[in-house]
Amino acid sequence: MSGVRPVRTGEQVATSEPLITIKSAAKVYGTNLGLAPLSLAIHAGERVALVGPSGSGKTTLLRLLAGAMVPDEGPHTVSINGKSPAGLKPGNELASLVGIVSQRFDLVPHLPVLHNVLAGRLGHWSLARSILSLVWPMERRAAQQALARVGIADKINERPGHLSGGEQQRVAIARMMMQSPLVILADEPVASLDPARAEEVMELLVGLVSGNSDGGDSQRALVASLHTASLIRRHFTRVIGLRESRVQFDLPASELDDAVLDELYDLGDDAVAMEPLAGLAARDG
Question: How many domains does the chain have?
Fold first, then answer.
């Protein structure tokens, strides 16, 4: 790129302490830089999109936020609601902080949709309650309500393998609703969906943090990696561009345009390469 753009965060949605704080966090894999030292703050209610070429550091940043890896400077450099996710054991405390939606869905194929949705409660339940729920499903009514919200209440007894890609993604989102974390992390959640399905899934994810829809909560935040500019402009308040493991810009999503993306992806006049950014179909979900 010709130069790093000035960092200007998206619209301010809160004047209180940030929900997410990162202070000079970095990650090196052997001799390869995964993420250059990064500092940022994200407030409750913000919807932040991460955009950039493959290998730019987006997934590393999401893994640091999820507590799946520790920053080289130590876990204290990343905090959510004042706690370090990397310093927490899997269980209630971590489950209440962070939830993940990915393009893989991570559903259990031999269990019905009901049990896959109830898996969102495992971090909140005791081991005995979790085992008992396999025989007598706990919180069935709440699971039914979550499935109704995502529009697939009639699939409650189906196996994931009998569902389309879009329906499987909805199951994963219903599971997230049951988990009810403060921060929702989404790693390319619509990469395998066609534009119509992608729009539906983004509306569901945004609804979880908007505070103005059924079940939405403005005390949450959404951080998602995406490649589709139109979805970012419609559904996000802020966009952070990464290239070669470094932040290149941090802007209100409304200011994201083709010129900014051209520079970030180093596409020049390559219109064909820009097609995914324009929101064209990847494949039917």
Answer: 1
pLDDT tens-place string over residues 45-86: 999 999 999 999 999 999 999 999 999 987 778 999 999 998
pLDDT, tens digit, for every residue of 95-130? 889 999 887 888 999 999 998 998 888 766 566 666
- Whichever domain contains 185, its CATH number is 3.40.50.300
Domain-embedded: residue 134: no
**284 part of a folded domain:** no
Give the burial class of 68: count Cβ atoms within 10 A of its Cβ; 0-12 exposed, 13-18 middle, 19 or more buried.
Answer: middle
Instruction: Report the DSSP pairing between strands 183-187 and 221-225.
Output: parallel
CB-count exposure of residue 33 (10 Å: 0-12, 13-18, 19+): middle
Which pLDDT belongs to residue 24? 93
Give the closest residue to 172 by CA, choosing from 157, 153, 189.
Answer: 189
Residue 161 has pLDDT above 60, yes or no: yes
The residue segments making up the domain with residue 246 are 20-109+181-278
Q: What are phi and psi of 40, to 5 degrees?
A: -160, 165
pLDDT at 8: 52
Q: Is residue 144 part of a domain?
A: no
In the prediction, which pLDDT does 57 show?
A: 94
148 in a domain, yes or no? no
| Measured CA distances, 255 to 77, 143, 249 (Å) | 29, 38, 11
